[in-house]
Write a structure and sequence with these properties.
The protein is α/β, with parallel strands linked by helices. The protein is built from 14 helices and 15 strands. Helix 3 links the parallel strand 1 (67-72) and strand 2 (97-102). The two termini are 34 Å apart. 44% of the residues are buried. The structure holds beta-D-glucopyranose. Beta-D-glucopyranose binds at residues 77, 79, 153-154, 202, 206, 208, 246, 276, 278, 302-303, 323.
């Protein structure tokens, strides 16, 4: 894997900081009298407004009346609401017209939505697939219409219509979960001590799910092989632990069954390795209602969903792997603009775009069945109760409510 890292300020944060800088500027004539100050402020505001209008005009001109079609999977899983609004906001901020669709996690609906976007003559498609295998036909239509396609977060399989993939390093997400468990239980120094673990993975229709599971499992397998980690249910294959549609209730029911079948005799559950927050939420509920042990179970997750962050604050979930989707949207924006301008960007997009976040250009990891799809992969972070403030609040992604629970901005 070819890696290049680059450091700049995130678009969203830059926006916020620029606003703050501007405000600071307007308020700085503190020594002058009120009339002068308000006159200055009014003049400044006017200049500011003119500058903004000019910038918008330039963006509109640059965008040349082009339209971007964004197809997101569902609003019922928290993160896609954030992805959709960040993407829309940012493309619109550059003067593009945006059509955003959500398909209620229904595959046929997503195909129809994308057909609609093609019929509406979008110039670029950004698609987070519900089922990575089901878009070949509709994307062949996109290709016939010369519409470039960015596969967003989830790789779309078996179609040569996909130009690029933007995501986080999905294998690393799982690896961070596995390493977290390894460190938390000090598995390397466990000696004769053994721990019980159960796995909950994601949707088999989502190409990411296997990467997350393998990333975690590869770290923990040596301990399972050595007998330090024991899986009482015996369910260690991805197909056995997968959760259709990443559904919370499905994950909860499966864990209730496991607890009833393998832990009702007082057996202790030490770890519930969950691939993401929607499944972790269900597993946590099952443990609350159906587990008789009094130990605190190590529970992993991914995304930083608000309900899970509250559970982390309350000590009910142990960690989540946070992926700053605001940055994923920024990478997609700059890639999208390059494609809309007829370019075929490579690794240089990272340095030329001036991003504040780390990103790797990868031309070996993601083969969608028609060949390698060049990928821009961002870097995920581990979040626990100890670093919510520094990773999520100080960075500006979340605020804390009056009760100390993180709320998305
Ligand atoms: C995303 C995860 C998310 C999951 C369910 C995956 O494709 O990468 O961030 O938790 O879908 O929405």
């Amino acid at each position: 894997m070819k890696k290049k890292f680059s450091k700049f300020l995130a678009f969203a944060l830059t926006g916020a900081m620029m606003t703050a800088a501007f405000t600071g500027c307007g308020a700085s004539g503190g020594d002058t009298d009120t009339a002068d100050t308000s006159a200055d402020t009014a003049a400044e505001a006017e200049t500011e407004a003119e500058a903004e209008t000019e910038a918008e005009d330039t963006a509109d001109e640059a965008a040349g009346g082009q339209k971007v079609g964004i197809a997101m999977p569902t609003q019922s899983l928290e993160r896609w609401n954030r992805d959709g609004s960040y993407l829309k906001e940012q493309f619109e901020g550059k003067g593009y017209e945006v059509e955003l669709t959500y398909s209620d996690n229904k595959i046929d609906q997503q195909v129809k939505d994308i057909e609609g976007l093609i019929a509406d003559e979008v110039d670029l498609l950004v698609v987070a697939a519900i089922d990575g295998e089901s878009l070949s036909q509709v994307l062949a239509d996109a290709k016939d219409a010369d519409i470039p396609v960015i596969s967003y977060d989830r790789l779309i399989m078996n179609t040569d219509a996909v130009s690029y993939y933007v995501s986080f390093d999905n294998y690393t997400v799982g690896k961070l979960q596995g390493e977290f468990v390894e460190t938390k239980l000090d598995l390397a120094n466990a000696g004769d001590k053994t721990y019980n673990i159960e796995f909950t993975a994601g949707d088999p229709a989502d190409n990411n799910a296997g990467f997350f599971f393998n990333g975690a499992y590869d770290v923990l397998k040596p301990y399972i092989d050595a007998g330090t980690l024991v899986v009482p249910s015996g369910q260690t294959q991805f197909d056995q632990v997968a959760t259709a549609a990443w559904d919370t209730a499905t994950a909860m029911e499966r864990m209730q069954n496991i607890l009833g079948s393998y832990y009702s005799d007082g057996q202790q559950l030490d770890v519930a390795l969950c691939s993401n927050d929607s499944t972790a939420l269900g597993v946590t509920q099952a443990i609350e209602t159906d587990y008789s042990g009094s130990n605190s179970v190590v529970i992993t997750g991914q995304d930083g969903d608000v309900a899970n962050l509250a559970n982390i604050v309350d000590g009910k979930q142990t960690m989540t792997v946070y992926k700053a989707v605001a940055n994923e949207a920024v990478a997609t924006l700059d890639l999208g603009i390059a494609l809309l301008n007829g370019k075929t960007p490579g690794e240089e997009l990272i340095s030329e775009s001036g991003w504040s976040f780390q990103c790797a250009y990868d031309t070996s990891s993601y083969d969608n069945g028609t060949g390698i799809i060049p990928s821009y992969l961002l870097v995920p972070t581990v979040v626990t109760a100890d670093n919510i403030q520094s990773e999520l609040v100080d960075t500006g992604y979340y605020t804390l409510d009056d009760n100390g629970y993180p709320q998305a901005k």
